[in-house]
């Protein structure tokens, strides 16, 4: 079932679901079968086999994600990194060059700066806050441009509209990791991006129980990514497809509630004497507040707190929180806190962290679905 007129809440429930339902089942069952009877397929990629990403569970969740991101097609993968690496290797060929935003998600950054060259590809990094240098980086070998729609953990929001326009003007494929805002807060394909990528481990699934990823875009592009994925082998298993499909059904309502709670928490903590700074794109004090209003429909549920004290005191504060677990990852129903200098950015040299504006006492909060009053009380108590 699919209908472009439906709002996101309706698409999340009904898009992609088989119609008529299979055996009358209201919820699509898990097709735990690695292979299917031969049906006369003539193309290798059409043979029904689990690694070829075409079980009924795949087809359903692919169509649902495409409907939510406003894309023609989508493909789910075994992790966010499987989606990102497969899409990059498909888009940028050997001998070609990628322009990539500085300060990307750690796994992506490491792949591009340490492993990409081994595949014969080259990367040139740019500062997404200053697009004036971009034109100087383009030459005939540059094939694509890659950004994140909200950066981690400083929550900077690049000018996505200008980046998509720049890509079009220069004939580049534009790619964006849309994990942090999720399609509820941002739909980059509608701004002119060619390819959207996700760690579906985060908001799309939302329940901290699987790793998954996806790529979304035009049908032809997604077919290319899928055919490469079929050989690289990063396919999602049907049980995880089922869980992801279940998580997606509540994505719009979860993200709306998490947006609201994050705004309340950030507003309540801003100006607290134990915090040097509260970083949230929905606060007027955030450097990208005006831009975020233009490119995001909601400000998201990630909040960063710069603790005023030593790193030991910052850790003690995190330990006093009763409702927030200290763990990396984000986007689930449970509130999580992490100190990026010890987790996501521990591989970044200290002087480089200073240059990025990332202090060692910065605490990143992924706001969950707990009651906002309870959460605020817990943070205020732990700060005292
Ligand atoms: C977590 C994350 C990834 C990697 O996703 P996995 O599912 O862990 O492979 C990529 N990009 C962003 C922004 C992430 O937060």
Describe this structure in words.
- It is a single chain.
- The protein has 2 domains: 246 residues, Aspartate Aminotransferase, domain 2, CATH 3.40.640.10; 133 residues, Alpha-Beta Complex (Aspartate Aminotransferase, domain 1), CATH 3.90.1150.
- 36% of the residues lie in helices and 15% in strands.
- It has 13 helices and 12 strands.
- Helix 9 packs parallel to helix 13.
- The mean pLDDT is 96.
- The structure holds pyridoxal-5'-phosphate.
Chart the SSEs and their pairings:
Blueprint (H helix, E strand, L loop, with lengths): L7 H7 L41 H14 L3 E5 L2 H12 L5 E5 L4 H10 L6 E5 L15 E7 L11 H10 L3 E5 L4 H4 L9 E5 L13 E5 L1 H14 L5 H12 L1 H19 L5 E5 L9 H7 L6 E6 L3 H10 L4 E2 L9 E3 L11 H7 L5 E5 L5 H12 L1
**Element string (H = helix, E = strand):** HHEHEHEEHEHEEHHHEHEHEEHEH
Largest sheet: 7 strands, mixed
Q: Per CATH, what is the topology of the largest domain?
A: Aspartate Aminotransferase, domain 2
How much strand? Answer: 15-25%
Helical percent range? 25-40%
Question: Judging by the overall fold, what is the CATH architecture of the largest domain?
Answer: 3-Layer(aba) Sandwich
Indicate the low-confidence ranges by residue numbers.
none
CATH class division of the largest domain: Alpha Beta
> Which molecules other than protein and nucleic acid are bound?
pyridoxal-5'-phosphate
Helix tally equals: 13
Q: Which shape, going by the Cα principal axes? A: globular
* Cross-sheet strand order for the largest sheet: 1-7-6-5-4-2-3
What's the mean pLDDT score?
96
CATH homology-level superfamily of the largest domain: Type I PLP-dependent aspartate aminotransferase-like (Major domain)
* Total beta strand runs: 12
Distance between the termini: 52 Å
Please give the radius of gyration in angstroms. 21 Å
Overall domain count: 2
Query: What is the SS-derived class?
Result: alpha/beta
């Amino acid at each position: 079932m699919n209908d472009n007129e439906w709002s996101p809440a309706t698409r999340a429930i009904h898009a992609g679901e088989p119609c008529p339902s299979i055996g009358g089942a209201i919820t699509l069952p898990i097709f735990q079968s690695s292979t299917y009877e031969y049906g006369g397929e003539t193309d290798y990629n059409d043979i029904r086999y689990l690694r070829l990403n075409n079980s009924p569970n795949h087809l359903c969740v692919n169509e649902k994600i495409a409907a939510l991101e406003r894309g023609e097609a989508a493909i789910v993968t075994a992790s966010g990194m499987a989606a990102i690496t497969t899409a990059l290797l498909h888009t940028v060929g050997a001998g070609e060059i990628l322009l990539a935003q500085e300060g990307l998600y750690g796994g992506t950054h490491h792949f591009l700066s340490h492993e990409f060259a081994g595949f014969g590809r080259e990367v040139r990094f740019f500062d997404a806050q200053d697009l004036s240098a971009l034109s100087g980086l383009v030459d005939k070998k540059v094939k694509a441009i890659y950004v994140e729609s909200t950066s981690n953990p400083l929550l900077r929001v690049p000018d996505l509209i200008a980046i998509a326009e720049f890509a079009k003007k220069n004939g580049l494929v534009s790619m964006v990791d849309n994990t942090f805002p999720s399609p509820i807060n941002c739909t980059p394909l509608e701004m002119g991006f060619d390819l959207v990528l996700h760690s579906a481990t985060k908001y799309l699934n939302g329940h901290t129980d699987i790793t998954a990823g996806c790529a979304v875009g035009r049908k032809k592009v997604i077919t290319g990514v899928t055919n490469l994925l079929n050989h690289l082998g990063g396919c999602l298993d049907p049980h995880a497809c089922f869980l992801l499909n279940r998580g997606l059904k509540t994505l719009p309502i979860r993200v709306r509630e998490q947006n609201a709670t994050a705004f309340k928490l950030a507003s309540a903590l801003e100006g607290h004497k134990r915090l040097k700074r509260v970083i949230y794109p929905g606060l007027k004090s955030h450097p990208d507040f005006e831009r975020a209003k233009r490119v995001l429909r909601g400000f998201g549920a990630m909040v960063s707190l710069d603790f005023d004290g030593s790193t030991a005191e910052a850790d003690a504060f995190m330990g006093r929180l009763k409702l927030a677990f200290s763990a990396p990852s984000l986007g689930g129903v449970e509130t999580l806190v992490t100190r990026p200098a010890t987790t996501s950015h521990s591989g970044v040299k200290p002087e480089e962290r200073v240059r990025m504006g990332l202090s060692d006492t910065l605490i990143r909060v992924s706001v969950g679905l707990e009651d906002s009053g309870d959460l605020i009380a817990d943070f205020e108590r732990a700060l005292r």
